[in-house]
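To assess whether the prediction recovers the assembly geometry, we first specified each molecular entity separately, as shown.
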Amino acid sequence: MDDLVSLCKRRGFIFQSNEIYGGVQGLYDYGPLGVELKNNLKQSWWVSMVYARDDIEGLDASILTHPEVLQYSGHQETFSDPMIDCKSCKLRWRADDLTDKKCPACGSTDLTDPRPFNLMFKTSLGPVDDGTGLAYLRPETAQQIFTNFKNIIDSTSRSLPFGIAQIGKAFRNEITPRNFLFRVREFEQMEMEFFVKPGTDEEWLNKWVNERIDWWIKQGIPENKIIKQEVPKKDLAHYSKATIDLMYEFPHGVEELEGIANRTDFDLGSHSKNQEEFNISAKVNKNIASNAKLAIQDIETKEWIVPYVIEPSAGVDRGVLAILNEAYKLEKLEDGKERIVLTFQPHLAPIKAAVIPLKKNNESLVDVAIGLKNKLQALGLGRVVVENTGNIGKSYRKHDEVGTPLCMTIDFDSLEKGTVTIRDRDTMKQEIQSIDKVADYFKEYFKK
Ligand code: GAP
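The predicted structure of the complete assembly is given in tokenized form:
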């Protein structure tokens, strides 16, 4: 992990947040290449959910959340982790970190019993901070999907089964943020709530588990490193009837990358008015605040039902960490030297191609390079850069380290014969292409 963290900083993927003031634990900033990688991952999820299928709509809802949303969702009461305080050094720990009943910092065994600690961040809306403007930073993106359920069926005329997808920030006041991007306080989720007829929920849960594994494989995570794990009944979240976690071998151990939960009719049932009109199966609190019925008419039976929900919920940051971990390779070369290379899937690579003029100060070479860059950039397949260092070897090394699939050198043959040398990141093989054909070559490469 240390080598990966250091590469991320050195090459501009990920920085400790607020670093110049000493940093804040559990917060990270994505640098110039990190933001490209993260956007590419989110785009791949969005395309697979919203564009490639015809049964899912998108949403981008607010982060600041009305307290009643989180009251009826059950988060105010139950969204907590059991914590233990060390009475000697006064540090606080997650109970599951203290398996040997000793404080990890000072070794003391003088500890409190586990106590629940709510993970939600509060803030205040409006000019007066007297508690009347209480709002929360959402702890999951899902809740605003449920509160927008009626808006979305009214505006799209959807019928069951269908889903609503959202990507966005979530916030949790993790007491022991750790393992780089794995457990942080501000992170992004890619969540999709799939609304189904009660009775078809188990079948849909299995379908979505398989869909999600296939998607992670396409992002470069080997199938044998994704472990399906059914969450034991005693550990299920308050809303879940069954959850399958996709566990991944992170550098620090096997942990959750994504969870796929059967949330039943708990959430829509909890947020609905006139709950007694519906046959809600989950145990929900009586809602006296909502002004919407969160139900849909069954097109066959004409009965109004509160759908069940299957929710694949993936962490963007954990995804980025897993993808970086898989891509990172230290390779021994034939000449005895070593290279670091990030073997990203082409669609995830932060830079798709680097165009390198052989000589830095040669105007003709630089002009051709800029022209080619602009042509490739206009194809809209991702970022293309001109690498104007005048040092081909150094440029190759740099672009291997940041995972750029193609390097294109503009040399004197480019001026005389109209050719370009294209070097492949993974094989390091070079081939000569006519400059007129490079755009087709590039399109074909990223279609793979
Ligand atoms: N809506 C369901 C939900 O939020 P979760 O298991 O608490 O379920 C879903 O979170 C995903 O969000 C996790 O699988 C993980 O990838 C990511 N996640 C949760 N807490 C996180 C944290 N503190 N830091 C980074 N990612 C986190």
